[in-house]
Inverse folding.
């Protein structure tokens, strides 16, 4: 497994998906910071009390996930499979003395690690920027809450990986998964502050930052978990079926 994982890492590291992931992880927190500060006419640079720790950190994560996070999941998840078709290497890949499911598992693990890296970079930069402006460390309870919500959000992001992987596997191109992520983004932007959020499995990544908000009262974390769990299991089952039935020519 480690050898297969390393091979997949080398392929992904040299791909455009790697550059896109790093670029978005760096760009999103910086852009959010500049927009937030400019909306306050840069007064927050002088009056540090204008920036609220909780509001800033949680809104940054919500915007980051909506604008770039879903796109990253779609690009990385689908690219891991689509490139094999584009480079005509899939048939060669399945002739290796490694079980097909081992190869698919390695790809899914690598995608999850990519998403972890994206979230870590985004979180670190957003935390550093607000600490620089406020000139103090993030209060312990704010830091713990934000990291816990971020971790739960990451788990929901991982739950979406099989969906986009499957879309890429069926469509055999990266455009369809990207278009799907954009549709998801607009739907969430429209329903993000409503009581329908927990009825959208693809809304899981932003759910941890919204479910306790007064404007979205009545939302159920349990409902979101089982919806995402069912979606992930069904998509994984179809991926396994598709992988095992693929013919090698």
């Amino acid at each position: 497994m480690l050898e297969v994982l390393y091979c997949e890492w080398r392929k992904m590291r040299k791909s455009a998906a790697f550059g896109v992931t790093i670029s978005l992880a760096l760009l999103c927190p910086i852009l959010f910071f500049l927009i937030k500060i400019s909306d306050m006419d840069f007064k927050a640079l002088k009056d540090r009390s204008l920036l609220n720790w909780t509001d800033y950190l949680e809104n940054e994560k919500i915007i980051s996930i909506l604008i770039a996070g879903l796109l990253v999941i779609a690009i990385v998840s689908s690219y891991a499979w689509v490139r094999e078709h584009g480079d005509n290497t899939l048939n060669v890949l399945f002739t290796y003395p490694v079980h097909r499911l081992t190869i698919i598992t390695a790809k899914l693990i690598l995608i999850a690690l990519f998403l972890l890296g994206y979230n870590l970079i985004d979180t670190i930069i957003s935390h550093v920027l607000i600490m620089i402006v406020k000139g103090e460390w993030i209060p312990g309870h704010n830091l713990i809450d934000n990291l816990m919500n971020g971790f739960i959000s990451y788990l929901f992001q991982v739950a979406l990986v099989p969906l986009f992987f499957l879309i890429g596997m069926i469509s055999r191109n990266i455009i369809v998964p990207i278009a799907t992520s954009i549709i998801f983004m607009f739907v969430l932007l429209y329903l993000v502050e409503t009581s329908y959020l927990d009825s959208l499995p693809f809304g899981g990544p932003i759910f941890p930052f919204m479910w306790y908000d007064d404007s979205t009262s009545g939302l159920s974390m349990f409902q979101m978990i089982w919806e995402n769990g069912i979606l992930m299991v069904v998509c994984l089952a179809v991926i396994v079926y598709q992988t095992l039935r693929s013919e090698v020519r």
